[in-house]
Structure formats: structure tokens, C-alpha cells
Amino acid sequence: MHDDDEVSVPYDMLGSRFVTPLFAAVTGWTTQIVSSADVVHVDSVALASLPLPFSSRTFANPLYIASNVTGFASHDYTDSCNAFHVYDAGLAAPILGQDPQIKLMVYEPGYAFANEAPVYFPDEQSVYFCSDAGGTLGRSNISFNNVVFRVNLTSVLAKLDNGTSTSFKMDVETVAIDSGGVQMTNGATNYQDSLLLINSGRGAEYPPTLALVDRETATAKVMLNNAAGKHFNALNDVVVHPKSGAIFFTDAWYGQTQGFRPYVDLPLAVWRFEPESGLLTALTDPSIIAVPNGLAFSPDGTKLYVTDTGPIYNGTVQPTPSRAASIYQFDVQTDAATGFQRVGAKSVFAWPETGVADGIKTDTAGNVYVGTADGVSVYTPMGQPIFKAFMPQSGAVNLVFAEHGRLIVTAQERLFIIQLNSSITGPPIWDYPL
Ligand SMILES: *[C@@H]1O[C@H](CO)[C@@H](O)[C@H](O)[C@H]1NC(C)=O
Ligand SMILES: *[C@@H]1O[C@H](CO)[C@@H](O)[C@H](O)[C@H]1NC(C)=O
Ligand SMILES: *[C@@H]1O[C@H](CO)[C@@H](O)[C@H](O)[C@H]1NC(C)=O
Ligand SMILES: *[C@@H]1O[C@H](CO)[C@@H](O)[C@H](O)[C@H]1NC(C)=O
Ligand SMILES: *[C@@H]1O[C@H](CO)[C@@H](O)[C@H](O)[C@H]1NC(C)=O
Ligand SMILES: *[C@@H]1O[C@H](CO)[C@@H](O)[C@H](O)[C@H]1NC(C)=O
Question: Whose CA is nearest to atom 1 of ligand 3?
């Protein structure tokens, strides 16, 4: 912990710079700029010993305010409580920059339109993402597919800067993908010029797939839809190795727990797929990760991070907090002669303070950004907590860097932009060797 005097981060208490949300319900909802965000210091020493008596916080309860800030009851958790909670001021300052912000870009109450699969394409300055597959606010189920959307950042950010309202109807464009192989999309990444989607599948007829979508035509080509003739369970998230171009992805079981997929007799696993050779390799099994979810590489590709959503193992019953909810780190091993890869040593990288960790990304310096039940937690490459973008009303499902310090966050009924120091960005995406 550094002294406050050493850094230029403004330490305001929550409340001093709140902008009152102004919502206008006309046709659907429109959203006006909701909050800039304060930066508050976490007093870890004081928090280490809470005043007695106190009740233990429950699994998903976001009410733990890891800062000096007090006085917020649960009903106060509006979007204007969003703030940066800083654990290490010296580490946070260069990432946050002079004027860090958490802004609501689009809000559509009652529809989890922005759940997963955020991908940014610099040539379009647009972000793609998908609606919830099978959740209560997803408007999708065994009979109805979820939807892939696109938002033009240039246009939406101009509106936010201008104080002009945004809305789901006006600012979120449906990407009508031409393939039955794209059912219940849950993850995505850039793949050269194309959009690589990972899909959970729907019912017994549409298996989970990896599909490559041409952005011009919105036509999809299915690259993978089975493991030696077996359906995957419910494919979840995908990333491409920065050096080999191999596709690493996770298979979870949320299709089954949410009632839109049958159980298939494959262990939940992290997999690796070489599109050119067709080689498919299992990298983990449930003895290594219970329910693999989000995944990301360090910028040099030597480390793989995987979030484990082990406690959420059955959509019909309460989470089991004793099961693993770690963010794991693996060494990535590469055979110098063949380029074949597997994962080696595993260790616990971090533990999410609230709920489970979901989507995960790294910046060019190797810092790790993770979506959790109460916001985006940021760690050094060693796993030391730097700060949390505290978003208690929505949490953060998944996230992606756009350029110029912009971090786009999908949070179910909300799409956010977190503005960091403009030098912060994700690793380059155009240099896959294929
Ligand atoms: C947090 O609490 C500590 C100890 O009471 C105090 O020194 C510090 O100034 C407080 N920080 C803020 C941002 O109020
Ligand atoms: C923002 O990043 C630049 C480039 O790394 C750095 O020079 C600058 O000091 C950072 N801003 C703050 C406020 O630390
Ligand atoms: C399935 O989703 C559709 C579209 O949102 C909805 O109209 C329908 O009621 C849902 N069916 C069930 C059984 O939930
Ligand atoms: C995004 O919006 C801007 C400003 O309205 C427009 O100039 C640009 O063509 C749009 N980009 C795409 C890919 O539609
Ligand atoms: C900016 O606001 C003005 C006045 O409300 C409006 O006429 C204009 O269309 C807005 N521009 C954008 C890009 O939203
Ligand atoms: C989930 O819970 C239900 C109800 O308790 C039970 O019938 C089902 O077998 C459970 N499924 C799994 C995968 O644990």
C-alpha cells in the first residue's frame, strides 16, 4: 500500500461527483450518461478486522464495500454507486489515468441483451456481443435462439459525449447470421478479419459449435461441432493463441442446467483445436478445473488464465460456495519442433471476492481484468489486486478492450464503457500466423 500523497489519483469519497441517472421511457428505454466514477482508496488494514458483531457475507452478496465508504444500504445500489476501489495506489495510477470513468452506454431493463462474447474490431470501431443464452432475462430457451448484436462505438460515444440519449432500439444492431450452426452464442474472439463465435448449441439437434462469421456477409462456416463424434456439452468461451494460432476453448454445462441442452457424456474441459490440421486435444478435465468458463492468454502466450465457475453447477439449485471459484493460471508448453501445445503447471492466480469470475482479458502489460459479480477486478501478472471497477448493481459478465483505454463491459441489461488511461489496450489481434 502506498501513501496517498505519492500519486495523482484523486481520492474522493463516493457521492461527491454523482450524476443523477435520468431515464425516459418512451419506446423502450433511453439512457443518458449515468455516472462518471469516483476513485476511492481501500483501507485493507481497517477491513482486516471488522467491528463485532457482524454476519458473514453470503456467496453472491455484493454488499462488501472494500473501502472506507459506508452508509449505502442495498436499495442504494444504483448505477451511480459505480466507482474505482483501489487496493494499490501506485499500481493503479498509470492504469486509471487522470479521469477514469464508468459509463453506461445502453440500458434495456428486462432484457439481458449484452451478456457475453464481446469482440472489438478496430476497422469498424464496433463491438459485437450476444444476448444471454438461457438465463431468465435472455429471451432465449430451447425453442428460441439468442442474438448476436453490434454497437457502433463511434456513434454511441459521440452521443454520450454530447449528452444525447441512447437506447437499445436506436443503437444496438442485430447481426442476422446465416447458419443453423450458430445456436446460443456464448463466446467470441477476433480471428483475422472474421468473428469467431463459440456456441452452446440448442436442444439435441443443434450441437455446440465453433463457427467463423464473415462480417461482410454475416455467413457462418462451422469449424468444429464434435469431439470424436460426440456433442460437446455447452461450449462457453474461446481465445486464439497469439503465437500458434490454435484455438483454446471451454466446455461448461450451462445449457443443461438452463434447460436448453441435454446432458452429453463428455467431461467438462478446456480444449485446444488446430483449424488447419483438425487436431483436437483435451487440456483439462474436472480433476483440474470443475467448470471452466472464461479464458485468456498472457500477451506472450506463455500463460493461460481460466476462470472456474465451480460453485454454479446446477441452475436449479443454490450455488455451492465450497466448490472452486478460482482464476487459475497454467504454463503453456509448446513443442519447438511441431508447435503442438498443452498446459503444464497450474496454480491459483486469484480468488474473486464476490461470486464467481467469468470473462477475463489481459492488457499489453500482462495485467489481468476479470468480470465478477460486483464489477471488474484488475490484477498484476503475479495476481496482486490493483483495483476493482465496482459495479454492484450489474456486476460484469465479460469484457473487451477497444482502443484508447476503453474497456467495454457486457453486464446483462447493461452495456458499459470503462475509460482508463488512453495508453491501456489489449494485445494486438491481427498477427495470427494463419
Ligand atoms: C480511510 O480510512 C483511513 C483510516 O481511518 C484514513 O486515514 C483515510 O484517509 C481514509 N481514506 C479516505 C479516502 O477517506
Ligand atoms: C498514462 O500512461 C502514460 C503512458 O504509459 C503514462 O506516461 C502516464 O503517466 C499515465 N498517466 C497517469 C496519470 O499515470
Ligand atoms: C421461450 O422464449 C420465448 C422468446 O423469449 C418466449 O416467448 C417463450 O415464452 C419461452 N418459452 C418458455 C417455455 O419459457
Ligand atoms: C459508425 O458511426 C459513425 C458516426 O455515425 C459513422 O460515420 C460510421 O460509418 C459508422 N461505422 C459503421 C461501421 O457503420
Ligand atoms: C448533439 O446534441 C444536439 C442537441 O441536442 C443534437 O442536435 C445532435 O444531433 C447531437 N449529436 C449527436 C452526435 O448525438
Ligand atoms: C440439479 O438439481 C436437480 C434438483 O435438485 C437434480 O435433479 C439434478 O440432478 C441436478 N443436476 C446436476 C447436474 O447436479
Answer: 141
How does DSSP classify residue 67?
S
pLDDT given for residue 43 in this prediction = 78
- Enter the pTM of the model: 0.89
Q: Please, which residues have CB within 8 angstroms of residue 3's CB and are 6 or more apart in sequence?
A: 89
* DSSP string computed for 86-118: ES-HHHHHHHH-SS-EEEEEEE-TT---B-EEE
Name the closest-CA residue to atom 1, ligand 5: 162
**Are the CB atoms for 38 and 13 separated by under 8 Å?**
yes
Question: Kind of pairing, strands 385-390 and 398-401?
Answer: unpaired
Q: Which helix (H) or strand (E) holds 162?
A: helix 153-162
Rounded CA-CA distance 86/420 in Å is 13
Q: Measure CA 310 to chain center.
A: 17
Q: Cell 477497444 appears where?
A: 402
What is the rounded CA–CA span in Å between residue 326 and residue 347? 9
The residue whose C-alpha atom lies closest to atom 9 belonging to ligand 6 is 314
Instruction: Say how many Å lie between the CA of residue 152 and the centre of ligand 4.
Output: 6
Residue with the smallest CA separation from ligand 4 atom 3 is: 155
Q: What are the cell numbers at 308?
A: 472456474
Shortest-distance atom of ligand 1 to CA 4: 9
Distance 85 CA to ligand 1 centre (A): 13
Q: What pLDDT, on the 0 to 100 scale, is given for residue 32?
A: 45
46 Cα to the center of ligand 1, angstroms: 9
Ligand 4 centre and the CA of 65: distance in Å?
39
Q: Grid coordinates representing 22?
A: 435520468
Residue 261 corresponds to which cell in the numbers above? 441442452
The two beta strands, 341-350 and 327-334, are antiparallel
Atom of ligand 5 nearest to the CA of 158: 13
Burial class (CB in 10 A: 0-12, 13-18, 19+), 21: middle
CB 307 within 8 A of CB 295: yes
314 lines ligand 6 (CB under 6 A): yes
Q: Which atom, in ligand 3's list, is nearest to the CA of 140?
A: 2
Continuous segment of H or E residues that includes residue 47 = helix 44-48
**Average confidence (pLDDT) per 10 residues, the chain, 434 residues:** 27 24 32 61 80 76 56 53 88 96 95 98 97 95 98 97 95 96 98 95 97 97 97 97 95 94 92 96 96 96 97 77 93 97 97 92 98 95 96 92 97 97 88 53
CB within 8 Å of 344: residues ≥ 6 apart: 330, 331, 332, 333
Q: What is the pLDDT of residue 52?
A: 79
Judged by DSSP in three states, 253 sits in coil
